[in-house]
């Protein structure tokens, strides 16, 4: 059997986190040649993950520019990938999830008639504008892909409902593979604010909030609800790594900046962020990936969105939808901080996203696909 040339394409930090353990698994496989191409849709945040996992890209398109639009990202990525694929001549291109890089990578592979493997396939919210543009990115990638690596049975069902059949593999989520590689019980942060928090005796909340659809009134209501909780419950400490988006920063500072026991800090690299999840009691987030990571560590999650493409965790009981309305976010957060039984019920629920062996399953599936 000839060597399989596997090109992994990604461009953002979340993609890099979930693709890094897969790249390392491909590198160990004698029957495969690993080729890594990054678009650098996000530059600094991507580089942090590459360094953490010791990955040196073979191709770096470095497309990031200040104030770039979705159209500009797509066009620059597509043009750059066209040249890379001509030169590298891969047998299969792996894209991940639902970013603009994912869409561009899938299209570029399709134009060159190269096989496409979609990692984290089958996630759907059912609303093409939420999350935007991710819902359509992953839907279009799914229609172009030749191999579909689904984290859960629900993701598989979504593809079958869309009449996508054949070469669907149930693998678990690669983010669990990544998470288990970086968690350390004795982890020490570079940020002394985080080292000085009393995680044992205080109820600690990790907050992340940055999505486009939450900008404006929804985010204002979310931050106001957090402020209400902290002012009412004295034993609560909030840690909020604030996104670099100026709109998020301005609102966070105006509502939460002067509130005691609310720590507004700079965004964290992946390793300290994963270990912070492990130390905190409760996660409030509008992020997608954290809905997968936190349950693996036994941490309840309240989702600050009106819908989720990750219903498995909701069904399992590890995640609840808090929405974006001020009173609802306040009431649900307060309940988990004060009701031990409600907290334990979520914390002890079974994580639906796998056992940390997703990458091995994906590599075996690719080998079998090309053998046949």
From TrEMBL:
Sequence intervals crossing the membrane: none
Family matches, as SUPFAM superfamilies: UDP-Glycosyltransferase/glycogen phosphorylase
Keywords associated with the record: Isomerase
Location of the UDP-N-acetylglucosamine 2-epimerase domain: 24-367
Superkingdom of source: Bacteria
Any matching Pfam family: Epimerase_2
EC number: 5.1.3.14
InterPro entries: UDP_GlcNAc_Epimerase_2_dom (IPR003331), WecB-like (IPR029767)
Keyword flag Isomerase: yes
Gene Ontology MF: a single term: UDP-N-acetylglucosamine 2-epimerase activity
Family: Belongs to the UDP-N-acetylglucosamine 2-epimerase family.
Protein name: UDP-N-acetylglucosamine 2-epimerase (non-hydrolyzing)
């Amino acid at each position: 059997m000839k060597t399989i040339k596997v090109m992994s394409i990604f461009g953002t930090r979340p993609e890099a986190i979930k693709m890094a353990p897969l790249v390392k698994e491909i590198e160990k496989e004698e029957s495969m040649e690993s080729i890594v191409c990054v678009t650098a849709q996000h530059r600094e945040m991507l580089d942090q993950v590459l360094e953490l996992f010791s990955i040196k890209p073979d191709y770096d398109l470095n497309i990031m520019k200040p104030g770039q639009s979705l159209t500009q990202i797509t066009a620059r990525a597509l043009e750059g990938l066209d040249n890379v694929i001509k030169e590298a001549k891969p047998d299969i291109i792996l894209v991940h999830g639902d970013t603009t890089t994912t869409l561009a990578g899938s299209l570029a592979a399709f134009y060159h008639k190269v096989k496409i493997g979609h990692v984290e396939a089958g996630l759907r919210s059912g609303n093409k504008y939420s999350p935007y543009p991710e819902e359509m990115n992953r839907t279009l990638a799914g229609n172009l892909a030749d191999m579909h690596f689904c984290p859960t049975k629900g993701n598989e069902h979504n593809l079958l409902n869309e009449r996508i059949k054949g070469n669907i593999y149930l693998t678990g989520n690669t983010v669990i593979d990544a998470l288990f590689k970086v968690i350390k019980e004795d982890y020490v942060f570079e940020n002394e604010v985080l080292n000085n928090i009393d995680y044992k005796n205080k109820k600690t909340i990790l907050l992340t909030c940055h999505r486009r659809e939450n900008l404006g009134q929804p985010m204002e209501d979310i931050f106001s609800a957090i402020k209400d909780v902290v002012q009412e419950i004295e034993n609560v400490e909030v840690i909020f790594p604030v996104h670099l988006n100026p709109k998020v920063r301005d609102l966070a500072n105006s509502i939460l900046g002067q509130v005691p026991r609310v720590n507004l800090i700079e965004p964290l690299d992946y390793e300290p962020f994963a270990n912070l999840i492990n130390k905190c009691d409760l996660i409030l987030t509008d992020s997608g990936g954290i809905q997968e990571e936190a349950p693996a560590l036994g941490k309840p999650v309240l989702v600050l969105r009106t819908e989720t493409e990750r219903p498995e965790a909701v069904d399992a009981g590890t995640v609840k939808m808090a929405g974006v309305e001020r009173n609802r976010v306040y009431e649900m957060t307060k309940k988990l901080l004060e009701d031990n039984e409600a907290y334990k019920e979520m914390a002890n629920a079974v994580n639906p996203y796998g056992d940390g062996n997703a990458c091995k399953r994906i590599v075996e599936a690719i080998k079998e696909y090309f053998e046949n």
